[in-house]
Amino acid sequence: MNQSDPHTDGAVPALLERGRALAAPALREAVGRLAPPTSTVAAYHFGWIDAQGRPADSDSGKAVRPALALLSAEAAGAEPETGVPGAVAVELVHNFSLLHDDLMDGDEQRRHRDTVWKVHGPAQAILVGDALFALAHEVILDPGTAHAARAARRLVVASRKLVDGQAQDIAFEHRERVSVAECLEMEGNKTGSLLACAAAIGAVLGGADDELADALELYGHHLGLAFQAVDDVLGIWGDPRTTGKQAWSDLRQRKKSLPVVAALAARGSAADRLTALLTADAKKSQAEFDDFDEAEFAVRAALIEEAGGREWTEAEARRQYDTAVAALHRVPMPGPVRDRFAALADFVVVRQK
């Protein structure tokens, strides 16, 4: 990673703000096509209104994907606005996955607010997620060009991989053992696929050839793996006041995240003790597991760290970062654009939430 931390010098905040400023109006316009109550529930999910329907200004997320989509248009020599349909489409697919994931995982909080299923019920969470998914593909095809059709194909493939990854993630919760390779494949699908799409979709809309689009997609894939590795660390050791989630959130959900899988694959007494605990946990009912107190989760987190799971995952985030940045040098693009892609990668790896 760059020692100067470029995200602190104004480059990344400006990119993220540009992503919000250009994509947000188009995102609101797209959601406005939905009929009530779907449009109302979607507006709550995006933080535009509160649970009572009053206007709100809640945290709308990091906006990394819209920033990537606009930047990728510039990599192809197009104006950033060219990437707006791609930015909106990727955000819609991402939020479709969040709505369904929150319900499947039983998460009651997202971005310091009650989740949609908690406020509006599981049925609405499913329906609104479905609506956003369909709307994403409508939006990407709106330009009606051959480039839009190529972009739509990449979005469809990324969406399928995302669903594959979520299915793998859920299946892993009920297995005693998951290999590191299986975990990386799952995370590449669940997180890497959509970031890969975001990093390439603006360039495709701008008329880029497949060589440039594929290199940007490779960058985004490895950026997604770095992003998820950081997320996995925060999912166990993140500060709830910063992350907006419960302490030990991934342990509460019995997720086979990278720190857990790496720790179980290690040798030594900590790994053995962790294996015994998690094997016993797998046999418990959800009600029994929900009765665990903070100390029991703290013990599991400490064993994961002692076995080297945290250190390995943090190193993996750096390895994936290096691979992502290397992909940027496989093809020609404007130097300042390449630098901004690298700065976004730095931001992803050093973030705290």
Keywords:
single chain, 353 residues, mainly alpha, Farnesyl Diphosphate Synthase, magnesium, Polyprenyl synthetase family protein, Polyprenyl_synt, Polyprenyl_synt_CS
Short description:
The protein is mainly alpha-helical and 353 residues long.
CATH topology: Farnesyl Diphosphate Synthase
DSSP strand tally: 2
What's the end-to-end separation, in Å?
18 Å
Q: Structural class of the secondary elements?
A: mainly alpha
Beta percentage is: under 5%
| Number of self-contained structural domains | 1
Radius of gyration: 20 Å
What is the name of the CATH superfamily?
Answer: Farnesyl Diphosphate Synthase
In what order do the strands lie side by side in the largest sheet? 1-2
Query: Residue-averaged pLDDT, rounded?
Result: 91
**Architecture per CATH nomenclature, i.e. the level-2 architecture:** Orthogonal Bundle
CATH class: Mainly Alpha
Give, in order, the helices and strands: HHHHEEHHHHHHHHHHHHH
The largest pleated sheet is described as: 2 strands, antiparallel
- Which of globular, elongated, flat, extended, rod-shaped describes the shape? globular
Low confidence ranges: 3-8
What share of residues is helical?
A: over 70%
Description:
It is a single chain. This protein has one domain: Farnesyl Diphosphate Synthase (Orthogonal Bundle). It is built from 17 helices and two strands. The protein has a two-stranded antiparallel ribbon. The longest helix is centred in the middle third of the chain and has 28 residues.
List the helices and strands and how they pair.
Elements: H1 11-31, H2 38-45, H3 64-75, H4 84-105, E1 109-110, E2 113-114, H5 116-120, H6 122-141, H7 146-172, H8 180-205, H9 210-237, H10 240-243, H11 249-252, H12 258-265, H13 269-282, H14 286-290, H15 294-306, H16 309-327, H17 335-350
Antiparallel strand pairs: 1-2
Helix pairs in contact: 1-3, 1-4, 2-6, 3-4, 3-8, 3-17, 4-6, 4-7, 4-8, 7-8, 8-9, 9-16, 9-17, 12-15, 12-16, 13-15, 16-17
